[in-house]
Amino acid sequence: MRLPLALAIGCVALFASQVDAQDTPTKREEEALAQAAKKLEKVAQAAQEKSPAVARKEFERAFALSPSAASRDGLAKLPWVDGPDPSPPAELETEIKTAHDECATLLADAAAACDKDNQVAGFERLATLIHALDLSKTELDRIGAVWFEPYLRCVRKDDAAKLEAGGELVDGKWLEKAAVAEQDKKHASWATPWVLSDEVHELRTTVPHRTAREILAYIGVYRRFFLSLFPDWDLKTPGGKLLVIVTETQKDFVERLKIEQQKTGGVEAPPHQAAIYLHFANGRGPCLATYEPAFSGQPVKVTLKGVLLALRHELAHQIAFEFSKHAATRGREAQSQLWCIEGLGRFMESWVLEKGRWRLSRTARFLLVGNQGVEGAYAYCQEHKDKLPPLDALFALDWNGFFKEQLTLHYNHAATAFDFLWEGEGGRYRSGLVKLVETVHRNKDSGKTWSTCFPNVDRKALQEQFSKYVDGLKIEPER
């Protein structure tokens, strides 16, 4: 299973312990990543004229290793490429293969050094990159790395055997299956939950350790995909960990939500939900999700699939706002073009991970439990096209107008409008859309934000193009 630009990196820390030092890449690791990225940037630049699709894939690889200005600029200028990697032109095939082999050797040597120093997280990060970017299976074999599907990453061969037997690495020590079960009992209370972290996120939960690590792995995969999808959006990793809380019951969800709101003094949020991101101008806002969302006020148990669906939406908000705070205007909230905030959330919610690749799923409905599910935004807009207000009306909504009435319509309309500006008309509006969401999430919006981001765009023609786009959407069966 390959995970281009969506790589899971995580290591475990107990509730009372400090952040594990292995969350932070070593100097040798960073140097290897930077050197490898430069090699890939070089072949990407060479391929730009002959094959923009190949150039983009190589810039994507470079960006995954080390998100430099060169790879960011290269991606911003090249069209999005979906599906399998394109074949390189014959005259560049040898040069690209050589670059891949050299990159794999650089990363494998650094991984071997991490292994020698018992830097387990560093070994796994580097091996996962070699695997995910499809650089060299030979180098993975040389350092003894294998893929472990539940955690979406490569591990040492000996460690994989322990994991397959139900063992876990906890606080730097390997525990057998029975001992893990005992630890799960100790961490089944919110007085002593599991706390797992990667280099950006911290997860707190009372679910079993194996499930918790699967969730953290998915969070890391999703975060990296989000950042790769918007390379021309100036997003920067915030200082300190971003908190994600996952509860098993609606009761615990409500209690955890109240506690987090009290910590920050934020506005009280509606409690009966599947997930929520608490946005605060000062301080880092947490995400909360539950295995027992309340549909129409009635709690219903869902599987991990349902939790991840809800997290995709709320993590999009958390990443967009928290990674924008480095350039945000303090002391004010966004006031115009607010539709794009929820439009982004529902748009990102619709991406699904299948066989190592993220794909935008315009499904009729996402099933959560039994016959209950969430109606797809695109199917809704196609079915209720005659009830959709003009785009100008959507773009002009304030928070009260967006949430007070016709909430379902506004959410789905916003998502489909976002999708249109991203994908429609050959992607001609994409750069303007990215500028718009960047401006709004930095709280720098004004009444002129639309015209600044989309200069000389005929709104009447835009409406006609959107209507045609909605008509032409291919809706998938419910999933």
Give structural notes.
With 479 residues, this protein is α+β, with helices and mostly antiparallel strands. It folds into three domains: 11-215, no CATH class; 233-327, no CATH class; 341-472, no CATH class. Helices cover 51% and strands 13% of the residues. The chain has 19 helices and 16 strands. The strands form six sheets. It has a six-stranded mixed sheet, with helices on both faces. The chain has a two-stranded antiparallel ribbon with strand order 2-3. Strands 4-5 form a two-stranded antiparallel ribbon. Strand 7, helix 9 and strand 8 form a beta-alpha-beta unit. It is globular, with a radius of gyration of 23 Å. The model is unreliable at 1-21 (pLDDT under 50).
Would you spell out the secondary-structure blueprint of this structure?
Layout: E1 11-13, H1 27-47, H2 52-65, H3 69-77, H4 90-116, H5 120-132, H6 137-143, E2 145-148, E3 153-156, H7 157-164, E4 168-170, E5 173-175, H8 177-186, E6 194-197, E7 201-205, H9 209-229, E8 242-247, H10 250-264, E9 275-277, E10 287-290, E11 294-295, E12 298-299, H11 304-322, H12 339-349, E13 351-354, E14 357-360, E15 365-369, E16 372-375, H13 377-383, H14 391-396, H15 399-404, H16 407-423, H17 430-441, H18 449-453, H19 459-472
Parallel strand pairs: 7-8, 8-10
Antiparallel strand pairs: 1-6, 2-3, 4-5, 6-7, 9-10, 11-12, 13-14, 15-16
